[in-house]
Amino acid sequence: GKGLFTYDPGFVSTAATESKITYIDGDAGVLLHRGYPIEQLAENSDYLETCFLLLHGELPTAEEKENFLSTIKNHTMVHEQLSHFFNGFRRDAHPMAVMCGVVGALSAFYHDSLDIHDPKHRMISAHRLIAKMPTLAAMVYKYSIGQPFMYPRNDLSYSENFLHMMFNTPCEDKKVSPVLAKAMDRIFLLHADHEQNASTSTVRLAGSTGANPFACIAAGIAALWGPAHGGANEAVLRMLAEIGDESNIDKFIAKAKDKDDPFRLMGFGHRVYKNFDPRAKVMKQTCDEVLAELGMEDDPMLKIAMKLEKIATEDEYFVKRGLYPNVDFYSGIILKAIGIPTEMFTVIFATGRTPGWIAHWNEMISSDYRIGRPRQLYTGHTRRDYPAK
Ligand code: SDX
What we know:
By secondary structure, the chain is mostly helical.
């Protein structure tokens, strides 16, 4: 090592220990949740079934699934006093700022499930978080547009319920489109977990100190917010709007190659996938299905996105660097078609990622873990004396 402090490359922060939840092969474009390929889960499963799989390691039996769905339903309401929490924010606050705050505030309301060493408490907290994230996400949106909060309904499925709370009001109770509910469910499913990425590692590190699960998930939301991570889906839509017309694509590709310009092609590239992100393929398929069902095949954003993908994935600079569309590239086009505003996209990502975060948290807390303590490579001054007076 350099200087006085040697760097022990063998030291791994225990919060990033081995995991049985998700496997990624970046070169082969493989993503398995508890061994099941993401393509098969997207085709045959649904979001809550995948939540059960991530949490418990096996697909639920019919009875287990029924019990899980009713448990989640019974936790969808939030403490009535939480609604006052929002009033401290400006209406134009970024939804992720409010989401960070209100999820952290859950610790102040659910004292009866905070003993992290009690497996029952851990499961109650897991169920509460999966159940309440859509309710809180819809409240964040309603607050930003000055409409009253909508209560969850037990007669609707998870994704129908979310769209009901987002877009209905006390004055009208429109039926949620099954096409949009299925697309919403698919979006949540494709975001459910992704091994130990930046925000999941944040949740594990926070969890390794013994912090309560609500605080850990709030930390994960904060980490997800950045445009290099979960904030990319919002940035992709803004980039497509800025491109505005296919004729401008080459200019953006050139900018993305300019080393001095921090601009990157949002929705492209990945820390692990150097071939293609399997979720992007499923997301693109879903995008085509939803837009066709809605008669929006000629959505101008989609046209620009497809042309951008074609040009970028044939361009030597991108091919050489393994830069392909990632999970965020097409998701925003679907969310926009569902009617969700751009600034809410990362809140949707956080909602979908909650079962992954909490499954990793639970896996670590129930293992023989120690507090995470990543070490540094010290490159500063060696010891020196204070100048004599
Ligand atoms: C997510 O980790 C996860 O699993 C995350 C995630 C999850 O589910 O949790 O998958 C979700 O965060 C997906 C990524 C969303 N982010 C974006 O779409 C933002 C745009 N992408 C880039 O910021 C970037 O690709 C990252 C952050 C995703 C990855 O950054 P890296 O690891 O620095 O990329 P790299 O090392 O593979 O880069 C290789 C080269 C570099 O150039 P050189 O130094 O070799 O000359 O490619 C360049 C990079 O500068 N590069 C890009 C680029 N991404 C990388 N150039 C232009 N546009 C891009 N998007």
